[in-house]
Amino acid sequence: MLSRRQKVLMLKFFSMFSVVRGYNILIVIIAQYLTSVFILAHDKPASEVVFDPSLLMIVLASAATIAAGYIINNFYDYEKDLINRPRKSRLDRLVSQNTKLSFYFVLNFIAVIMASYVSFRAVVFFSLYIFGIWFYSHKLKKLPIIGNLVSATLTIIPFFAIFIYYKNFETVIFVHAMFLFLLISMRELVKDLENLPGDMAQGYNTIPIVYGEKTSKAMLTILALLTLVPIYFLINHFNIGRMHYFFYMSIILLVIFMLILWRSKSKSHYLILHNTLKFIIVAGVFCIVLIDPELLLNQIENVKYP
Asked: Region 239-264: what's the mean pLDDT?
């Protein structure tokens, strides 16, 4: 049996895990490694990439910065989340605001220290990334369109860090990035529709508030159609192995997304749309291995039979 103190500590741990979105950070870490092995450094042995200490420091610095970003975002959105996410807010409130801010500064400091292992340029990169996240949470988040674009850009910056590290400028990488950027932009706009009550109460000038739900749905439809452009090029002009199955699945899900979108009227509908996009993004992470499944099988065999 756990003592009362141990139960409180466990609840606070889960509260902090909720604030920093630990599950999202885990997905980002996996995505960075799979992207490195199968796309950015596909010409190198997988074991060399996986056990590269500099890559590890970049991944950990990214994780620490993202966690800090979720904390500062939670800090500024505290009152809004009481309306939009009452259950999650009750869990998040188990940790005081002062404690969250302390974690925020500690995580950012750790991120810079880890980046210093790689190079001074990495320190500058992550310092600017940290500032960008704070400036977005403090100022830009309440601005329509600009806030959405900046949020989507900040989300893909951790992949840009390893892109710079490997100095791989193949066209296929930019096409993958465009597909991801469009999906994240869609997700951000759906979140605005989902969080409409809290945003209105707190004076946020999001796209649905400024331009209306109908215009927001039209913009989402355009973004969904634009995703077909990188999908077409990835399937027909680049060697992506069996990952084309993922893109065919994405087309089907995006068609379903648009059909549901124009019938959506409540938060529960927008939550379904949000989860659909999240599923495509997460599935895309794990489907990266389909680019060269034999590479993964060889690595597993090498681990089992060194």
From this structure: 95
pLDDT at 206 over 60: yes
What does the domain layout of the chain look like in residue ranges?
8-168, 170-306
CATH (residue range 170-306)? 1.20.120.1780
Domains 8-168 and 170-306 share a fold: no
Alpha-carbon torsion 85, 87, 92, 95, what sign?
Answer: positive
| pLDDT tens-digit map of 35-82 | 999 989 888 888 899 999 999 999 999 999 999 999 999 888 877 777
CATH number given to 8-168 = 1.10.357.140
**Residue 263 phi/psi, 5° resolution?**
-110, 0
DSSP, res 238: S
> Among the listed ranges 12-21, 60-69, 203-212, 251-260, which one has the minimum average pLDDT value?
12-21
Where do runs of H (alpha helix) occur along the chain? 4-19, 22-35, 46-50, 53-76, 78-84, 86-92, 97-118, 120-138, 146-166, 171-194, 196-201, 207-211, 213-226, 228-237, 244-261, 267-286, 293-304
DSSP output for 28-85: HHHHHHHHIIIIITTTS-HHHHHT-HHHHHHHHHHHHHHHHHHHHHHHHTHHHHHHH-
What is the percentage of the chain residues whose pLDDT exceeds 90?
62
Give the number of other Cβ atoms within 10 Å of residue 33's Cβ.
19
Contacts of 17-23 with C-beta under 8 Å, sequence gap 24+, read 18/88, 18/91, 18/92, 19/70, 19/71, 19/74, 19/92, 19/95, 19/100, 20/66, 20/67, 20/70, 20/71, 20/103, 21/67, 21/70, 22/67
Q: What is the pLDDT of residues 102-112, one digit of tens each?
A: 999 999 999 99
